[in-house]
Fold this protein.
Amino acid sequence: MAAHLKKRVYEEFSKVVQIPHEETPAKKLRLSKPSKSAALHIDLCKATNSTDALQYLLQFARKPVEAESVEGVIRILLEHYYKETDNSVRLKIASLLGLLSKTQGFSPDCIVDDSINTLSNEKSHQVLAQLLDTLLVIGTQLPESPTVRQRLIEVACKHLSDTYFGVRNKCLQLLGCLGIVESPLNKDEGLGTSIGGVRDVQSIISDYFGDQDPRVRTAAIKAMLQLHERGMKIHQIIYDQACRLLSDDYEQVRSAAVQMVWVLSQLYPESIVPIPSSNEEIRLVDDAFGKISHMVSDGSWMVRVQAAKTLGSMLQVSPHFLEQTLDKKLMSDLRRKRTAHERAKELFASGEFSSGRKWADDAPKEKLDTNTVNLIASGACGAFVHGLEDEMFEVRIAAVEALCQLARSSPTFAEKCLDFLVDMFNDEIEEVRLQSIHVLREISTHITLREDQLDTVLAVLEDSSRDIREALHELLCYTNVSTKECIQLALLELLKNLNKYPTDRNSVWKCLMFMGSRHPTLVLPLVSELLSTHPYFDTPEPDMDDPAYIAVLVLVFNAAKSCPTMPALFSDHTFRHYVYLRDSLSHLVPPLRLPGRKQVYGLDSVDSGSGSGSVESAQLFLQQSLNRVSTIQNLEAPGAQDLLDFTIRDLQRLGELQTELAGAADFCATYLRCQLLLIKALQEKLWNMAVPLCLKQNVTATAAAQQILEETYKLEFLYCGLESRQVATIHHVRLQAKALQLILTARTRQGLDPLISSCEKFLQDVESFQRLFLTELPHLQDSFVDKLLELMPRLSSCKPVELVKILQTTLRQSGLLQLKLPEQIHRATATIIEPTGESDNPLRFTTGLVVALDIDATLEHVQDPQNSVKVQVLYPDGQSHVIHPRPGDFRKPGPNRHRLITQVYLSHTAWTEPSQIEVRLLLAYSSSSTSLSSSASKQGWSDSIDSIPPSEAAVEGTIPFSKPVKVYIMPKPARR
């Protein structure tokens, strides 16, 4: 009996251990979603003091809350709010109410009344400000509810008389975000005005421009600006108040006032405002320009930056006011100049000479006080001069950018500010120098450089910063110069630059190419001197390997394109050098018409112009090729393969001939190559043969499946401009390749467990495809995926062997999916400029140490290069190193173009003789980072565990997208 009882005790004990084990998965599945409010209620009831309650609230704030549970949680918080006496806990509860109101999918209209009621008995100013902030959140969440908006505005007006600045700030913010100009407001008694007065929201806000607290004054201006951003027109009467705030003692008020004055100058530019202490009148935009110009001399550098930036956007200002900002002298002695007729009339009325009967009757009629301003504020005189000479480089950059914006719209102002911008090339801060170069480049169409200005500009070529030098080369490409001495000076300095910094070779050549084509008449008198030719004596032939001589030829040949008389000055060896450079540097040397030399040198060859007609015909040919391939289902296997082979060859040749369609042609050729590989892998003789007899065919099919997978990743990540239709087509081919791999796995009989896992993985891939491309499924009728989705219930329940048979039949019966081309498609390409790979001199370094190899490459149509572009170094012994460049190594000279300038560190053990290493650029990809999968993950199914299949999320790799460059290196043994 005792033994029996003992056994029963053990049984009961084992059951007790098992019960919590069964409950744990229920918590993971979150069977009781409303338990958030219950848990919070229990925690708050357990709190013995305010410190514990605050800790529970802080812990609760870290956990997400579902939209269904928000209302219950808010009720619990409000219930505890009325019981709580500690201000800090009530403040945290008020903060949580605002955070919960922002929950996605929750509409806070049900808690508006409760939130407003909390304000009535609140004594703490800080909590009151936080509650008003919560009401602001609720109001912005319910923009379509006029009743809620009106109630919140009334609450804001009621509390505007609070003594705490934070409460007044939040009330003004509420009025700025929710106030409506059309609906007048009833002023309450607490606002200190006449009872029952009806006023609009702008006049209420403007009352607080003169508040005693600078933070409230700032909030009032920002509230008015918020009204403007919401599309309401600010009243012009605000202008005088905003101008008075420009002389406020606090910088944040002055900063906001600058913005307010600018807004009004854009709303009422042509309005006439009177000038103080004078009977003159002036346009509002000119008056605002003068006042904001005065702020460039403000005591706070942040206000100076904002004032300088604001000046750049005031394009409607009068030209004489604009030009005054570049002159420190006061304009017209601050008075309006009278005409000679007016002066003569006044002299006649007063008498020519003093009679002497009255004391000081010939004294000046008016006394000028320099502190009073008649026409323009004295600070506006030389505003940009002050800005460009400021001690803070941020102010100088802002002044340079403002000059650029104003100069682009006014050619006369561009000429006047040229000297000031050129002087900024000598600034001590590199960022300022670079910005001034970019600015001069933008206004280069309006200006012509004199020799003294060009001298200052060219001095920057000595700068050690590569970015500065290349920006200056870009500037010289688009700048006009005045004399042939300027051309000679620029060429001399560029050749010095080439000698000092050989890595600038391509940039200098490109600069001289543009300079020659822009100034053919100035280059013509210098040709004999540049080419060292003589009318009577033969001169020695220069060395064609000299980069400086090539630079001179690039300048001369580009000038000769627009100057037909120039080739008569060339020597015989110059024509031979032209032929050589036309072949080797065709992007720098233009085709020239040289009469009498066609038969000898073929110099009259004009490039086949890629006009609009040729592009249209190439597009038509591309579309016809794709339509021809769509008939492949009607052909036998040999004929289908031949048709695909010929079409792929045609598309590759089309991409070489027509650069505009290179991306589309390569994309189509790669897609058709995948189809060709699939057809070859599914040949009849492979699948009708016994498994032991077809090992060779199995190897071929396995290699084909792997190659198709690699090609599909190239199609997806190497091309930009793809639409979801094309991405679905690529994934469809990838799914076919995975099905082929699964069939081959089953045929090799590697075991049942790998086959079961492979089948589960494949079914996950099919489900993932269906989720990702649900909208594209109607376009995939009668395709491989369409047939699989019809058979999906059967596939999910059948055995692996039967699934493989179904897949084999479906794969062989499915036809070619028609490819639809998008509007614009481009292939990501990279060209390595440095190293060139032409040098026979090995790069020597000591074994075990490192040597830096400079990499300079241009990237075209690469999305997010900072994260995707890598440099691969392949050593002769098979070792491979992949280097990730720093984000700062990438520049963006133009749209869809990037520049990579970095250094790669090499090291190796000792070699007996120099060998070549290969350097290439790789494009890294991850199938989990595809744009379609990331967008689909936001559509509601992201809560499920298997939203992205593990097979898709795990696929990462790299694609070589540049030609490899070979570099000789020689690790030397260390000396003992």
